[in-house]
Specification:
With 411 residues, the chain is α/β, with parallel strands linked by helices. 39% of the residues lie in helices and 16% in strands. The longest helix is centred in the middle third of the chain and has 21 residues, at 201-221. The structure holds beta-D-fucopyranose.
Length: 411
Amino acid sequence: MIERPMRSFPDGFLWGAATAPHQVEGNNVNSDFWAQEERMPGADRSGDALDSYHRYAEDIRLVAESGLNTYRFGIEWARIEPAPGRVSRAALAHYRRMIDACLAAGVTPFVTIHHFTSPRWFAEEGGWRGERAVDRFRAYVEAATSILGGVEWVCTINEPNMLAIMVREAEATLDPDAGLEWLSPTLEADTPRPVKPAPPVEIGRRLVEAHHAARDVLREGTDARVGWSVASRAFETRPGAEEVRRRLEYVWEDLYLEAARGDDFVGVQAYSAQWVGLDGIEPHPVHPDNTLVRTAYRPDALGIAVRHTADVLPGVPIVVTENGIATGDDARRVAYTTGALDALAEAMGAGVDVRGYIHWSLLDNYEWGHWDPTFGLVAVDRETFERRPKPSLAWLGGVAKANALRDEAWR
Ligand code: FCB
């Protein structure tokens, strides 16, 4: 056992677990990703996923019973607006029932408006590059505000920096000459190779505009705290490569963080860290400790991520909206999360203002083309949809109830 001090967290700290609609609901047939799944060679299909569209009450119960106090989930644009300008009242009522189920269970709903997927019609109209993109998104957000009463936390767009990469990956699936190897946004290659191309800045700027438009609508129509969540790169710098890092950090991350100035919070999402040298970002070395998405095992990435975010955005409170590990070994998940929470507490001790920690993911879910990388606190039988909590769920719930990482967490 390693001797460590007890780490306490502030009163009212959010302790949660997260999901995203396309990854858990099932049969999201009007979405762009559903269509894209058919075009990606070797990709698994989402299919029924985990049937959370019908089993959300059970998912929320698992959160509540574990001791966690927050559930981050998304609402699906393709269901709410299956055709341009046609809003489904039934879909809105469905998501309102999810919010009510959280509130009834004493769980804080943390609602994501856009988590990677858009309606298929939106993609066909030109998607995020299209002329009407921001107006289309604004209209969807206007429809969504009608069900957000009593919701305190709203994330407009999840990981716009990854979304920008996914827009390009989607285009590549339509163009056989694009030469972009498809892997999924989160899965790295099994041999070291050049890192993915950077998020295209022009798409990034468009997403910034969409975020600001959504923020105005949400501030006008709800009482929620509004922000967005950025995928942290947690870059580390080889000697002499500071300038290279700063340049890369801007296109990969800071463009999106700077757009969160004036937001009510910023979501930090961190999984691993990566070195930047004079030649740019270094691929994750192949190593037996690597996670199931082939990234380096770096529990300390979360500390690097929140410190960098606080440097770019002084005065904007942080919520860790995702952190976790793809592993088949649940004890390793607990060890990783313990390390991540320790790094988080240390950064908070040094003055970084963090309001909550939301683990990715509540459930072993559809990892954008792959079912193998398991991030869940809960396993799911994909034929019966039976939920089987792993020991890590009770463990994280225990941390939440104590609002502290105690000595025994390190055993
Ligand atoms: C993030 C995504 C989330 C999931 C995790 C592993 O990039 O927001 O949907 O894929 O990574």
